[in-house]
Write a structure and sequence with these properties.
single chain; about 475 residues; alpha/beta; Aspartate Aminotransferase, domain 1; Aspartate Aminotransferase, domain 2; five-stranded mixed beta sheet; globular
Length: about 475
């Protein structure tokens, strides 16, 4: 063991290596030295456990990997060929160039984030978004925080901490990332009172549960799963009447965030914020990066007296959003003023507006770009909105499948597409690789098909 320990090169020796010197010129001596020590300590631990010292070339390779893991950008753009429009793992709602330009214009210098240009004094950042939110949703007031879980937690903390909040057992959902409604309620300090059954909850169940310590009736939209068959739930309007009778607050956690229903899209079964506000619930909480089509944010909209209480809570400062989020959110909400702008400016709605003719044309173009290189066929596909919304809605789409006798080829192609400078995520299904047209931007097609051709040629050369 001691002989192996002596073989471990010193830090100085590695710093004199020509490849390490080049790394130091790019990333700085301090980081390189740190990574060398980390790698050498790992080697010592391996030797003490009975292992052998690596060759110097392997050690240098490990140092490079450590440096790149720290210094190089990990978050990077990807191409989504899965047919899942709001892919949670891929950042949900994508932005178009106009939104990016709007953000860049705001970020490149100073801005009036908290400066009132009419009075010349300090302003409120929320004022930049409140007016248009109120207009589009018909809410009396609104406030923005960093995500919808925070919006619900802050709302309950402000209005129900130490008191009871009634909720149907059928609405105790997991909202993603292992966060569950009961956990959020517990964090807020509200005491959860469950009523009804998983599949059926009646108005009488809520009314029987009301006590002198009840403050809130909480309704949660089951946005990420669907219960069919023998079911029953209480509508917002009925809960609003019950709450008014007992002087309670109704909070509707809508989650998915569609502000209003645009014409001509497959969203008739999805609740929207405007309709929820008009149902007389007191507050609606929802996400910014799902069906709203914008950046990650949580929005609380509804009765002014409650929104203002929430805005004054000390936790509001910890959960508030910055100028990047407010700029993107403002641009997206402005697009709700006209359906044409919504479909033109917001990629989410542009994709949902694609019809059979457009999808077929995209699939044919994809195949043409691969003609003579890779054998393909156009197949019917079932796309999804995703992002925890409309789980039972399947969108008719078309995909392009690569034809190959060797089923291992599909997995190799899938892996190699993910290893590209701009990674490409396709569908790997039953030994086949498929590219769904619904979520592919036409400007990305040349890049995708070029990479497929390059991988296909290299794989064939290996045989």
């Amino acid at each position: 063991m001691q002989n192996e320990i002596r073989k471990i090169p010193g830090v100085d020796k590695l710093l004199n290596n020509s490849e390490i010197k080049l790394l130091a010129e790019t990333y700085g001596l301090e980081l390189i030295t740190f990574c060398i020590r980390q790698v050498l300590q790992s080697i010592r631990n391996e030797v003490l456990a009975g292992g052998k010292v690596k060759f110097t070339v392997e050690i240098i390779s490990d140092v490079k990997m450590q440096v790149l893991a720290i210094a190089e950008r990990s978050l990077q753009p990807m191409i989504n060929c899965t047919g899942i429009v709001l892919h949670t793992n891929l950042g949900r709602a994508p932005f178009n160039n106009e939104i990016i330009a709007e953000i860049a214009n705001t970020l490149k210098g100073y801005s009036n984030l908290e400066f009132d240009l009419t009075t010349g004094k300090r302003g409120q950042r929320n004022d930049h978004i409140t007016g248009i939110l109120k207009y589009v949703t018909h809410a009396e007031d609104a406030v923005v925080v960093n995500n919808n879980a925070a919006a619900l937690m802050l709302t309950l903390k402000t209005l129900c901490a130490g008191s009871e909040a009634i909720i149907s057992r059928g609405e105790l959902v997991e909202v993603g990332g292992s966060f569950r409604i009961p956990d959020i309620m517990a964090a807020s300090g509200a005491k959860m009172i469950e009523v009804g059954a998983t599949n059926r909850t009646r108005l009488s169940d809520y009314e029987k549960a009301i006590t002198e310590n009840t403050k809130v009736i909480l309704k949660v939209h089951k946005s990420n799963y669907y219960i069919g068959g023998f079911t029953e739930e209480v509508e917002n309007e009925e809960l609003a009447v019950l709450a008014k009778k007992h002087n309670l607050i109704v909070i509707y956690d809508m989650g998915s965030g569609l502000l209003r229903k645009p014409k001509g899209l497959s969203l008739a079964q999805e609740p929207d914020v405007r309709s929820a506000i008009e149902s007389e619930v007191d507050l609606v909480t929802f996400s910014g990066d799902k069906l709203l089509g914008g950046p990650q944010a949580g929005i609380i909209a509804g009765k002014k007296e409650f929104v203002q209480q929430i805005a004054k809570d000390p936790m509001m400062r910890a959960l508030r959003v910055g100028k990047l989020t407010l700029t993107a959110l403002g641009f997206v909400i402005k697009s709700y003023l006209k359906d044409d702008d919504l479909k033109k400016n917001i990629p989410l709605f542009m994709m949902l507006d694609r019809d059979k003719t457009e999808l077929t044309s995209l699939a044919e173009k994809f195949c043409q770009l691969l003609a003579g290189e890779v054998e393909t066929k156009i197949i019917a596909s079932q796309a999804q909105i995703g992002g925890g919304t409309l789980p039972n809605l399947k969108i008719d789409s078309f995909g392009v499948q690569l034809i190959c006798d060797d089923k291992k080829f599909a997995k190799q192609m899938f892996d190699k597409l993910l290893a590209q400078e701009k990674p490409i995520l396709a569908i790997l299904r039953e030994g086949n690789i498929v590219f769904d047209m619904l979520t592919i931007f036409e400007e990305d097609m040349n890049y995708i098909t070029t990479k497929i051709s390059e991988i296909y040629r290299s794989e064939n050369e290996d045989y």
